[in-house]
Design goal:
The structure holds 2 protein chains of 2 kinds.
Chain A: H1 38-44, H2 47-50, E1 90-92, E2 98-107, E3 113-120, E4 129-134, E5 138-140, E6 149-151, H3 155-158, E7 173-174, H4 183-191
Chain B: H1 6-28, H2 33-40, H3 45-72, H4 76-96, H5 100-129, H6 134-162, H7 165-185, H8 212-218, H9 221-237, H10 240-251, H11 256-285, H12 287-307, H13 312-319, H14 321-340, H15 346-374, H16 377-398, E1 411-413, E2 422-424
Antiparallel strand pairs in B: 1-2
Helix pairs in contact in B: 1-5, 1-6, 1-7, 2-3, 3-5, 3-15, 4-5, 4-7, 5-15, 6-7, 6-11, 6-14, 9-14, 9-15, 9-16, 10-11, 11-12, 11-13, 11-14, 12-13, 12-14, 12-16, 14-15, 15-16
The chains are: A alpha/beta, B mainly alpha.
Chain lengths: 194, 429
């Protein structure tokens, strides 16, 4: 599931009009750029523009205040080069090589993404592993199709991490080795939501 | 070759080699790779799981009906062609429209298609060479199939990694065409040179599905024994490679994918080399010793994977699987042919064993995954090895020799081009 991290903060943006949906690379893309699961994909968009900054700024920022008392919700247009769709996208390591693919996002109660689940390794689908990495180990590059998602961790740092076993089990989240403080509190939150 | 009909038969046997080769190619793209492909199309874990389960369930449900249907069809080539076309269609649908409905339909088509192909190819083989030479022929089939499998895994793995994952399914669909062509080159039933029909089971003359056959089959204790052993085989076998491979991903660095590729391809090479030998030995030594070796190899492999340290030794442990895979691939249709000799329902019998194998495989990944997550990898491998050991013991204790006794042979056929100098019994039907 691509979670809807900011859905609570922005009712305005998420149900954005599916009709005029321009295809992904279009310069003036509307929020729902995805043919497959429009509502989720649309909802997933808003957090990404803020993502380059560490995840505290998210709360109310991008959405212009929704105009109340309308039957149809207003529509905000988000330029395609300001957001990046992340589900199923390759995750690039610090050495410029593909590490794996982002397959899920774990979101806390406050709507903040806590961790991303990455599927990596294997051959022809055999032997791949899933691990969760802390959200702030990731950087996003909207408008850069080659490096849409960059992970700060080296392959050797994640390969032996305990496997992510699905939403019902506590998620072991890999944090960047250079910061030791946040994980305890946040990892605790990460296990609960979803 | 001494017989007049030798030429068309020789051509047909060659075409059968190629058919096995290409069929294995076509089957390689499906399986775990589907999950990788769908992930790149923004499918979620849950959706992928549902689609793959749909395929598994279809394959299990349709094993027995597909076997009965192939039994009832006089023209086995048509059955095989139908199966191949279904798989081609499935590959195209997955490649063109990776959305829910088409993928669901594709999974169902592929499940049914492969359930038809396996018994149909076995039936064509039996028709071409007869019972006496069947062991050797099935060995050759398995050999060509694993060459195809190994090559396809290598090529498709490369394409999936460096080109695009969708291209794998285009290639799969494309490789179905030479499979059809090879099938076409096999002489149709009734052409001179084919194995004389009076030596074949009465089955080939029946035109409608015979469900009573199932009852009479299941009443056979030997069939029940082998069916149970087939469950245990896959219970032990199916989860070993995925478990070992994820262990490789965990331990090895940059070369993990290469090592896993080796874990997949090395056993195929072992199968390719050993299958013909196994097919011949099964005729000389009887079925039991070969079965014992194949099932015991599972236990050995599980034990090796449990205790071997490091990554490359895992490949060695994994390559032992080639022996058991070769034994299973050759012996399943051979034992089915033994058991149904003279009374028909050959393909139905293969369907029953196929269902058992699929059930064992499904249980295997579930059980081993649970143990690996909650206890440890080593315990999971030891459990799988235990299933293999249990299967070996069951064969030793319960499975009688199914190769017909020398005294039963009424007709000697020494010059048949498809096989060794062996003898053939006249069918009672």
């Amino acid at each position: 599931m691509l979670a809807a991290p900011t859905a609570n903060a922005q009712p305005a943006t998420s149900p954005a009009a599916p009709a005029p949906a321009a295809s992904k690379p279009a310069p003036i893309a509307v929020a729902p750029a995805h043919p497959i699961t429009p509502p989720q994909a649309a909802a997933a968009k808003p957090p990404t523009p803020i993502a380059p900054a560490p995840p505290q700024a998210t709360a109310a920022a991008p959405a212009p205040a929704a105009k109340p008392a309308q039957h149809t919700a207003p529509v905000t247009k988000v330029p395609a080069d300001k957001v990046v769709a992340i589900l199923g996208q390759p995750v690039i390591g610090p050495l410029g090589t593909e590490v794996g693919r982002l397959i899920d996002v774990l979101v806390g109660q406050n709507g903040q993404p806590q961790a991303a689940v990455i599927d990596f390794g294997g051959f022809m689908g055999v032997g791949s592993r899933k691990i969760a990495v802390h959200w702030n180990t990731l950087h996003f590059n909207p408008g850069d199709p080659k490096y849409p998602i960059v992970l700060d961790l080296l392959p050797d740092q994640i390969k032996a991490a305990p496997a992510y076993q699905g939403e019902t089990k506590p998620a072991p989240v890999v944090v960047a080795p250079w910061e030791k403080q946040p994980p305890a509190a946040e990892a605790a939150k990460t296990t609960a939501p979803q | 070759m001494p017989r007049d009909g030798a030429l068309p038969v020789k051509r047909s046997l060659w075409a059968l080699d190629l058919l096995n080769f290409f069929l294995a190619d076509v089957q390689t793209g499906f399986g775990p790779f589907v999950a990788v492909y769908l992930t790149t199309h923004k499918w979620t874990e849950v959706e992928i799981g549902l689609a793959l389960s749909l395929g598994t369930i279809t394959a299990m449900v349709s094993q027995i009906p597909a076997g009965a249907m192939v039994d009832a069809m006089r023209r086995k080539r048509v059955a095989a062609a139908g199966g191949i076309v279904a798989v081609i269609a499935a590959a195209l649908m997955v490649a063109v429209l990776p959305t829910r409905l088409p993928v669901a339909v594709a999974e169902i088509l592929h499940g049914i298609g492969s359930c038809i192909i396996t018994p149909a190819v076995a039936a064509i083989s039996l028709r071409l060479v007869g019972h006496a030479a069947l062991g050797e022929r099935l060995g050759r089939n398995a050999s060509f199939a694993s060459i195809g499998n190994g090559l396809a895994a290598g090529v498709m793995g490369g394409i999936g990694t460096y080109l695009s994952s969708g291209a794998v399914f285009w290639l799969t669909a494309f490789l179905g065409l030479p499979a059809l062509l090879a099938l076409w080159r096999i002489a149709p039933a009734g052409v001179a040179g084919e194995f004389p029909e009076e030596f074949l089971p009465p089955v080939s003359r029946r035109q409608q599905v015979d469900w009573n056959g199932l009852g009479s089959l299941i009443a056979d204790r030997r069939l029940l024994a082998f069916a149970a052993c087939a469950v245990l085989f896959h219970l032990s076998n199916a989860a070993m490679l995925p478990l070992a491979a994820s262990e490789v991903t965990k331990r090895a660095g940059d070369y993990a994918s290469l090592i896993i590729a080796a874990c997949i391809m090395v056993p195929q090479a072992v199968v390719a080399c050993s299958s013909p030998w196994i097919g011949r030995r099964a005729n000389l030594w009887g079925r039991r010793p070969i079965l014992l070796v194949g099932w015991a190899a599972l236990a050995v492999r599980g034990l090796l994977l449990a205790v071997l340290p490091g990554t490359w030794p895992l490949v060695i442990g994994q390559s032992v699987s080639g022996i058991s895979a070769a034994v299973f691939g050759v012996m399943l249709p051979l034992v089915a042919a033994d058991l149904t000799r003279g009374r028909g329902h050959f393909n139905l019998c293969i369907g029953v064993f196929g269902l058992c194998a699929a059930a064992g495989a499904t249980l295997s990944t579930t059980i081993a995954g649970y143990i690996a997550d909650n206890v440890c990898q080593t315990a999971a491998f030891l459990t799988l090895a235990g299933a293999g050991l249990l299967g070996t013991l069951m064969i030793w204790a319960l499975m009688p020799e199914t190769e017909p006794l020398e005294g039963d042979f009424l007709a000697a056929r020494t010059q048949y081009p498809g096989g060794p100098a062996t003898v053939e019994r006249v069918q009672s039907g």
